[in-house]
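Sequence only, no structure available. Ideas?
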Amino acid sequence: MAIPRRTLLRSGLFAGTGAAASSLSLPTALGAPAFVRRDRPAVSHGVQTGDVTANSAIVWTRADRPARMLVEVSRRPDFRHSLTVPGPLLTPDSDLTGRVRLRGLPAGRELHYRVRLADPYNAAVTGEPATGRLRTAPQRRDDVRFLWSADLAGQGWGINPDVGGYRIFRAMAERDPDFFLCSGDFWYADGPLAETVTLPDGQVWRNVVTPEKAKVAETLAEYRGQHKYNLMDDNLRAFVATVPMINQWDDHEVLNNWYPGEILTDTRYAEKRVDVLAERARQALFEYLPLEHRPRTEGRVHRVVRYGPQLDVFVLDMRTYRDANGPNDAPAPDTGILGAEQAAWLKRELAASRATWKVIAADIPLGLVVPDGTAHEGVAQGNGGAPLGREAEIAGVLSFIRRRRVTNTVWLTADVHFTAAHYYDPGKAVFQDFAPFWEFVSGPLNAGVAPEPNPLDATFGPEVRFAAHAESAAKSSPLYGNQFFGEVDIDGSTAVMTVRLRDADGAVRYSVDLEPRD
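Reply:
I predicted one. Tokens follow.
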């Protein structure tokens, strides 16, 4: 009988067994310190893991002073048998952040890790460890659960101690996911916070405010401060310590609706060149998230994360390579949102995938019309006819998927501050050279909620199967609820994918089962 991996993990049947658990004992300098120093280095903003596969994971932390990062990993929560991996020296060059790639991990197991920081001049002087846990991807067909969402501290709604901070992460942690796919806008660099906000009905929202959150971010220090702010929240810090992340970015990590080459007219900014701001934001992104720099892909956000035989996650970057926001009606190939290189990469990786389900993580929905003033920010422009502008590039990807018989693609997205389920049907579309597929929208996590859904463009034939949003513009605050996250379950036996759209309390607002196709 096949026992689900989640059951095995909880049973502790694997605790302390196998070569990896005891292949290297903890050095004396990293055991219980012989003495305690008040000036020992400390973890300042918790720990995170990211891009976990069957055999590897990235561990992240930040120190309060220069220190050597050391990561200890074990199958036991008491770390009785463990492996210690030495990490980098954390210096002010990276704002005292650092990460370690753990390799050779056992597949399909729950692992415990802890980060110690050692004095760079005396390895015997270490601070208190910060602990977390992760699950590696299975090597065989097994149950998989993950969550996705976006939009944190947007529209003036930051950490409110009166409501328990970012409380949605408590509900998300209760779902016990294998990982969390963050669809972008995980901080609002262009969204200054006020200490109090009075709502139309007289209620008062109270924000924790730091100097970096009191103005729009322009300097590298201010972009770094966006990350530090969110990690002040106990709920988020606890969540990312125990749930691995897959991160992508959207616009608010830099500023609203940005595109390469843009020159700002916004008087709040002294630095008008968006390319300069984007480079600073990108540096902070890679410093403060469990993302890995690779020599040949330095600073690249798009990638594939392979999570066992049933799931590949294709993380897109719909910011770095896009053309300028405008009418979005030029013929291909003059415009695009992925860029030729990324579009070719996506087709190549989709064709090569042997996973049952191919989840395409897009930071912007395909069929919703997203305006940028009188211009267009998203893929669609509302013409409802043959693919134009950025639609033509997406049409090329969809046609490729059909021609190469790439089955079981599902698009997950966010950005628009409401949750929805869209079914794209070529029989109802103007452009029909594609196979039917689902797109699910989630968010926000803790931000303003849209009072109504964006209009849909008919080019790819989307049909709204479900949508939830704020009752009115006067009730867009998180204080009134309507904050959302999505959940995906893949059954290890049947490979059926169940998608649920949940609210901040964890209640299911919509659910659908998707049968895999051969």
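The first strand starts at residue 43 and ends at 50.
Hope that gets you unstuck.
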